Amino acid sequence: MRDQQTTCCIAGGGPAGVMLGYLLARNGVPVTVLEKHKDFFRDFRGDTVHPSTLQVMHELGLLDELLRLPHQKVTSVGGKFGNDSLEMANLRSLNSRCRFVALMPQWDFLNFLSSKAKRFPQFDLKMEHEAIDVIREHDRVRGIVVRTPKGIQEIQADLVVGCDGRHSSIRRAAGFEVVENGVPIDVLWFRLSRSHADQAHQVLGNINYGRALILIDRGDYYQAGLIIPKGSFQQLQQDGLEAFHSLIAKIVPFLADRTGELKSWDQVKLLSVQINHLRRWYQPGLLCIGDAAHAMSPAFGVGINLAIQDAVATANILSSALNYGASTDDLLADVQQRRELPTRITQTLQMFVHKGLEAIFRQQGPMQAPLPLRVVTRVPGFQHMVARVVGIGVRPEHVRLPVAGLRRGKSGSLATKVAALCAGFAVAATVAWIGLRPAARPRQRLA
What we know:
Elements: E1 4-11, H1 15-26, E2 31-35, E3 48-49, H2 51-59, H3 63-66, E4 72-74, E5 76-81, E6 84-90, E7 101-103, H4 106-117, E8 123-127, E9 130-137, E10 140-148, E11 151-162, H5 169-174, E12 178-181, E13 185-193, E14 203-208, E15 211-217, E16 221-229, H6 233-239, H7 241-251, E17 269-271, E18 275-278, E19 282-283, E20 286-288, H8 303-323, H9 329-361, H10 371-376, H11 382-391, H12 414-436
Parallel strand pairs: 1-2, 1-11, 2-8, 5-14, 11-20
Antiparallel strand pairs: 3-7, 4-7, 5-6, 9-10, 10-11, 12-18, 13-16, 13-17, 14-15, 15-16, 19-20
Helix pairs in contact: 1-4, 1-8, 8-9, 9-12, 11-12
């Protein structure tokens, strides 16, 4: 096949890749985005579009049209320990344009954004094009080797950006060093129908009998995520579907009448949770962002939004150099410096949550909300701080003119950093409390 040439070649058509492609093309940079699948349709991908991402869409003039697509609005996040219900985050308190999380199928979001990007002549999206290797010349990455329906092709580029996820082919081909953080959990995703008689909850974590089940209200069904000890899925399968049905009903009794909708393990999708990061995100001619640079846990549902923040920062910093044909090598470190701090802070908070889940796994009987959590959720401002960390994040990015990209960005707001520290303290206190308590014993009735 005939080789091609572009200014920037992006491997991966997920949120980071499509957003970066849109922003670069909008700024006049010729860009090619490679997506290995024939469409964006994949079930149980991250569907949470947070206020920080909705703000970016507003700055691009796309928000109103995006919100015409089918979606649900989440304005609060709650948890239920046994019979104790707690509200953890109140998104309505945020000082942002959108005070909610939009639950929207990722394929709808990507189809929408890519259709808008195609208005720019500089944007080229190639489906069924899988990046399998990098092209090197004199210790510099000069392009990508691509597998297509018509055979192997080479695409030469001034800059290659790896946005191809936690199993990144670009990352592996380039030999980046990956630093792994041990993760004690996996997640099983599945769907169960929702009854109009169910008590209204937008996002609810149900914790009981040593297990945690997340329910996300999607209108006529729940997207459910059962959090399990890492590597235990095979044992659950050996125990059988009936035992799995009983486990779900034990954690959330009102689901007992519909667990039978799960008739095959094919309806249950395993997410093997990872938290890792590249020690260095870049090489001459190559940059990794999103999950390719830092795989995130599903805790807080922030993976998509961090990837999009990476894309905005990358476009802000690199657009001018790419437009003028200047070398980007000295600017790639600026992208990592800009985005590494919010990534590491978020991953640290996620690891605190994982510690709490490990402690929960050790409990066998009915559970109550830990005392520190019951106290701290009643402290004025706590729910706002958690909402800010989850909804806005640390160091949110804003769309800027290309000329601003050559300046190193300022640090995130003090309010967000304080909120992250407070949220981390609350999680740590809860983890310590659960971990130090003996396993709960069944309550005895008084005679």
